[in-house]
Design goal:
CATH class of the largest domain: Alpha Beta
Radius of gyration: 26 Å
Organism: Kribbella alba
Distance between the termini: 79 Å
Oligomer: single chain
Order of helices and strands: HEHHEEHEHEHEHEEHEHEHEHEEHEEH
Protein name: Substrate-binding domain-containing protein
Keywords: DNA-binding, Transcription, Transcription regulation
Number of helices: 13
CATH superfamily of the largest domain: Response regulator
CATH architecture of the largest domain: 3-Layer(aba) Sandwich
Number of strands: 15
InterPro entries: DeoR_HTH (IPR001034), LacI/GalR-like_sensor (IPR046335), Peripla_BP_I (IPR028082), Tscrpt_reg_HTH_DeoR_CS (IPR018356), WH-like_DNA-bd_sf (IPR036388), WH_DNA-bd_sf (IPR036390)
Length: about 375
């Protein structure tokens, strides 16, 4: 079936039902969901319908002349295709358009986006960005817009963390194009399907950081995490390290702000320093760099020497090297993560027709970058 014929059938169904779903249209027309989305995007740009998540709804652009009539959409559809250079043989389908929706376009996700963009360029694909600001309602709106332009695949790092997977409901399962999750690992029983995902093994990162401190002779270590998605996995690594390394770990019960500072941040850092002193901890793991840098400043104001009196490891390595005392830090492979996720999605989209690719769950390991904030205890040096 040629594109103009599909468009007329789509508009006729829309006039009859008032709302259309991509999955139902694909089955009725005998084409892929990607083709239906592209058709809906063209008709939306012509003002003949309005794209919504999972399908389309009518607009006043569908005139009383009806499909194929003198004032109907058939001629307009043909002219839209000509204007956009859309050939009936599908020649304009060579460039894939990929949606990428992330919680932020700064700090951690800057490199994730750059990595995905570089990989998209290698494949001749186009990337369309949506940013949620860690707001689930905003995320839904951004997803609607990105899906509404007819993207062929989606890279998604949802504002919901892995510990809140049950809150996804059905909306993730309702997305009818290939999805690769980034830094998230949702799966059964929280969602109906298993999804490809690429994520950093943050649990391993926490274990590696603590193992480094133990290798320097520290047996009591304080830990302070921020209220972020990453903390869910860091806690798993900390729990494993407590058993395998045989060390005394103290995790502060008060989480630091996920982003930036609020009026209580300095008080929380001061309280954490007091907790470490009471616990006898002369080494700390702090998430993230910003909080670790401020902790170092507060410690030095109290006469503590870094690393002689307090060894510090930060988690994220975004600005750790710029601290007053350059911070040893765990560095997630952010650039590689974005590139790997994008390549996984593009290979899936360019795979052989009718042959389903195996679902992949990929974990990338973070790297320990040693700087001045971590030194050996005197007793360890004498050994």
């Amino acid at each position: 079936m040629l594109a103009p014929e599909r468009h007329e059938l789509i508009l006729r169904n829309l006039r009859r039902h008032g709302r259309l779903r991509v999955a139902e249209l694909a089955a009725e027309l005998g084409v892929s969901a990607i083709t239906v989305r592209r058709d809906l995007a063209e008709l939306d740009s012509a003002g003949l319908l309005r794209r919504v998540h999972g399908g389309a709804v009518g607009t006043s652009g569908i005139g009383p002349g009806g499909p194929g009539g003198p004032s109907g959409p058939s001629g307009m559809v043909q002219s839209v295709m000509a204007k956009n250079g859309m050939a009936e043989n599908g020649m304009a389908e060579s460039q894939l358009t990929i949606g990428i929706v992330v919680p932020s376009s700064t700090f951690y996700y800057t490199d994730v986006i750059r990595g995905a963009e570089a990989m998209a360029d290698r494949y001749g694909a186009r990337l369309v960005l949506g940013v949620s600001g860690y707001d689930v309602a905003v995320e839904q709106e951004r997803l609607e817009k990105v899906l509404g332009i007819g993207v062929t695949g989606l890279l998604l790092s949802t504002a919901l963390g892995d510990g809140r997977a049950g809150e996804l409901g059905r909306w993730l399962d309702d997305i009818d194009i290939p999805v690769v999750l980034m830094e998230r690992a949702f799966g059964f029983p929280h969602v109906e399907h298993e999804y490809d995902h690429v994520r950093t093994d943050h649990a391993y990162g926490a274990m590696l950081a603590l193992r480094h401190l133990v290798s320097l002779g520290h047996r009591r270590i304080g830990i302070n995490l921020n209220a972020s998605v990453t903390a869910h996995w860091l806690r798993q690594g900390i729990a494993e390290a407590a058993g395998s390394l045989g060390v005394d770990l103290f995790v502060s019960p008060v989480e630091l702000p996920a982003r930036g500072e609020d009026e209580t941040t300095l008080a929380q850092l001061d309280a954490f320093l007091a907790e470490c002193k009471a616990h006898g901890a002369r080494a700390v793991l702090v998430h993230s760099d910003e909080h670790a840098a401020r902790l170092v400043e507060r410690a030095m104001e109290r006469g503590l020497r870094i690393p002689d009196d307090l060894a510090v490891v930060a988690y994220n390595d975004e600005t750790a090297a710029l601290a007053v005392v350059p911070l040893t830090a765990m560095c997630p492979p952010k650039l590689m993560l974005g590139g790997t996720a994008c390549e996984l999605l593009l290979r899936k989209l360019r795979g052989a027709p009718g042959r389903a690719a195996a679902t992949q769950h990929l974990s990338l390991l973070p790297e320990l970058r040693v700087r001045a904030s971590c030194g050996a205890l005197e007793t360890a040096v004498r050994r």
